[in-house]
Amino acid sequence: MTYAVSAALQAAIFQHLSADAALVALVGANIFDAPPAGTPPATYVSLGEEQVSDRSDKTGAGALHDLTVSVITEESGFQVAKTIAAAISDALAQPLPALTRGFLVSLNFLKAQARRDEAGALRRIDLKFRARVQDN
């Protein structure tokens, strides 16, 4: 098993989303690898939770990363959040930049959950993706 490629994978995803013209047109620079400190922007994208499992084989160390990219917005309704979520899905369907360690075998969409917060003030969509990586 290896967790060694995790930081490189996160950096590549963050870089890729931050450089995607369609996504940047919707949220500007409000793409974070952690929830923003202080008062957050009204609408932003955040890289979130990750679960990793071993996928090593006779060719080398590898892992499956189930990761979350979240859209959070104060906009009423889900239209804005869904438009941003679609841009994220489109961006991650394109090849990522090379990882600084290891390589990406595949990156696939798994599922999404759209919900309101308890107070009803925020809309949130959590997009779940699965990445298969190999260490080199």
Automatic annotation (TrEMBL):
Signal peptide interval: 1-21
A Pfam family assignment: Tail_completion_gp17
Keyword ATP-binding: no
InterPro entries given in the database record: Gp17-like, Viral_Tail_Comp_sf
This protein's UniProt keywords: Signal
Domain of life of the native organism: Bacteria
Keyword Signal: yes
Protein name according to UniProt: DUF3168 domain-containing protein
